[in-house]
Amino acid sequence: MSIADRPKMIAVGGACATSIYRVDTVPPLPAKAIANALCRVADGMAISAACGFTRLGGEAAVWARVGDDVDGAFIRASLAAEGLDVSSIRVLRPGRSSSVAVVVDGRGQRLVVPFHDPELDDSAAWLPLDALRGAGIVHVDARWAAGAAAALGSARAHGIPTMLDGDVAPREVLARLVPLADFAVFSDAGLLAYTGSTDVDAALAQVAAAHDGHVGATCGQDGYRWYEQGASRHVPAPAVEAVDTLAAGDVFHGALALAILEGQPMVDAARFACTAASLKCTRFGGRIGCPTRAEVDAALAGRVVG
Fold first, then answer.
1. What pTM was computed for the model?
2. Mean pLDDT over all residues of the chain?
């Protein structure tokens, strides 16, 4: 596939400078745990999806806000090094860039402690919405609601497919964004919080009853569930030994978006995305553990990925 033929994503959302610490166990408080590994990445939910989309064969641009500080410079430089278009990451003064501390334990589970500066300008008036015309899909998270709503609304007006990462967020934010998404792809926790249900399949049916597009939920090691033609569908995730689950859902979103743009049927797209997310879980480092396209294709073909 030539560069010109690659599927194109525009990702809109929060941008963070994230420090990830690996420990054997997280003891009860008060306590001290000695890290045995550390990495620092530029990420965010939509941003990590864009990184996965690019590593798996697509091309992506990021629309986000950072502060005029060391973390903001790190975020822009790191994402540019990943091959993402960062020309529409806006540097704001005053304000501090978002930063996150993540502790990952020996089972691959994590504690996430984010800081988002409430003084960072929330306006989306500067977004280059005319540039949406060249996109194959617009993917957003709920961490910057004003930017997400502006991008989703403009994309839909131009007939460009849209996808929302419906992770846990204030219900009023998701209620604003879900109707604008052709693909409302929740986390299971986000879906249950949004609907007030305790059952994923029932919650999918509830959202689908008022939504004219795709409604699904990532369910960790249980894989992906979605609602189609009056029934719940399911693709399991491959069994892996988890090292780090951070950004697995984001990698799923990026992989699912790519597969959809490639024309894969939903069951195949979901299997592709589940495989990519599961392989990511075997590697420490959040979104930098996203596999390559060759690795995902090999896993789907039953070949060993080393």
1. 0.96
2. 96
